[in-house]
Amino acid sequence: MFRIEETELARAIEAARKLHPTVRVVAFGEYTCTGSNPLRIYTVKCYRDPQGFKTIDCTCKTQDGVACKHSMAALALHLYMAAVRFAAMRQVQRRKRLPFSV
Ligand SMILES: [Zn+2]
Q: How many A from CA of 30 to the centre of ligand 1?
């Protein structure tokens, strides 16, 4: 587990680029990611901890406080999904402001 705001990510991002993993969505904020051995699958969770820090949890054996390649691969998909979700919510809010539905 590590907080994005407090962790060096560059090495893990580079490792994720070399890994070419398969990332799948379980739910918004929960993903599976293949490892170096494609038969090994890790679960990655992206969430805000009770103090409000963006936190990532991976089931691999990387120690706490260090970013792993699986979490960086899953984070890329999570950020994309969060952006799409945010855009959809803004669209709904805009439609609510219109006097008629479009
Ligand atoms: Zn991992």
A: 13
Cα angle 20, 26, 30 (rounded to 5 degrees) comes to 80
Q: What is the pLDDT along the chain (102 residues), one digit of tens a residue?
A: 999 999 999 999 999 999 999 999 999 999 999 999 989 999 999 999 999 999 999 999 999 999 999 999 999 999 999 999 999 999 999 988 877 655
The rounded Å distance from CA 66 to ligand 1 centre is: 10
pTM of the model as a whole: 0.87
Both structure tokens of 63: 């120690």
Question: How far is ligand 1, taken at its centre, from the CA of residue 59, in Å?
Answer: 6
Q: How far apart are CA 22 and CA 3, in angstroms?
A: 23
